[in-house]
Specification:
It is a single chain. This protein is mainly α. The chain is built from 6 helices and no strands. The chain is flat, with a radius of gyration of 18 Å. The N and C termini lie far apart (54 Å).
């Protein structure tokens, strides 16, 4: 009986964490350059992010920290969160280590060739296409 309560509580925690990760994933996916403008006070209209102003702030923070690699970070974290909801035990330390290594590799690749992705970063408000070598 005690074991059943523990199992239900841990599953509930995993589902709650997965919902938070899903909201963060949606915040990153729906982030636009207009969100940055409205957060900084350059526009009076509210952010267009699906999660609202909090999602726009989270998306902006993640894109300023990780650049375009924020998309892959959000996807890998979402997949890891979905994996945590499966009852079979996994090695969580290996998935975190793998996520960090993939993220570092993507940051390196995206940093080596910034002008290749200037169109994407310009739309997100992370740089200008005219100065392609200086985008994030």
């Amino acid at each position: 009986m005690q074991e059943d309560k523990k199992t239900i509580r841990s599953r509930t925690q995993y589902i709650f964490i997965f919902v938070l990760i899903l909201l963060a994933f949606l915040a990153v996916v729906s982030y636009t350059g207009a969100d940055s403008v409205s957060l900084s006070g350059g526009s009076s209209r509210p952010p267009t992010n699906w999660i609202g102003p909090l999602g726009a702030m989270l998306g902006e923070i993640l894109f300023y920290l990780f650049g375009l690699a924020a998309y892959s970070l959000a996807l890998m974290t979402l997949l890891r969160g979905a994996r945590a909801c499966i009852p079979e035990k996994g090695r969580i330390q290996w998935s975190i280590t793998g996520e960090v290594l993939v993220l570092c590799g993507l940051l390196l690749l995206l940093g080596l060739f910034p002008s290749t992705f200037a169109d994407y970063t310009g739309r997100l408000g992370l740089g200008r296409k005219e100065m392609a070598d200086l985008v994030l």
